[in-house]
Amino acid sequence: VIGVKEASGNFCQIEEIIKNKPESFQVVSGDDSITYPLMTLGAVGVISVIGNAFPAEFGKMVRLCLEGNYKDALPIHFQPAFCRRKSCWSKMHAKCHGHDRKRTAIAACSDKTIYKRRNPQNNSQDN
Question: What is the DSSP string of 40-101?
Fold first, then answer.
């Protein structure tokens, strides 16, 4: 075993793993919404869902974290796509690309949310 994908959301557990791991043992995030905080604790990457929908934005955040530039990565982390329930954003991405199948296990996204993701230049900071 060379590492662990951590998606428990239990930060006490995650901190203990990172603090007590052997130097060669790697911890990666398995939950997009906690990738930034895990990387600030010492995680070295992510197995992502949202990164497939928004590779440039999410990849930039991860690269900035790997460089130790948490200040510039933080605003990207706070983008709605990265700190909300990933299933909603995955469904939104599919809908934007013409795959509008209904699945009851996944939350629906509003047209307003889809518009905001497609048109980030029109979003005010208050929204």
Answer: HHT---B--SHHHHSHHHHHHHHHHHHTT-HHHHHHHHTSHHHHS-HHHHHHHHHHHTT---
